[in-house]
Amino acid sequence: MERPSRFRSADEVCRYVDDQMAAALPGDWKYQRRGGRLEWEIAPRQRDPHSCEDDYLLEVSGEYRFLILYFGNSSAGCDIVGHSMLTAVVLTSESLSSCSLGTAVQRMIERRSHFRLNMWSLT
Question: Structural domain boundaries of the chain?
Answer without folding.
Answer: 10-110
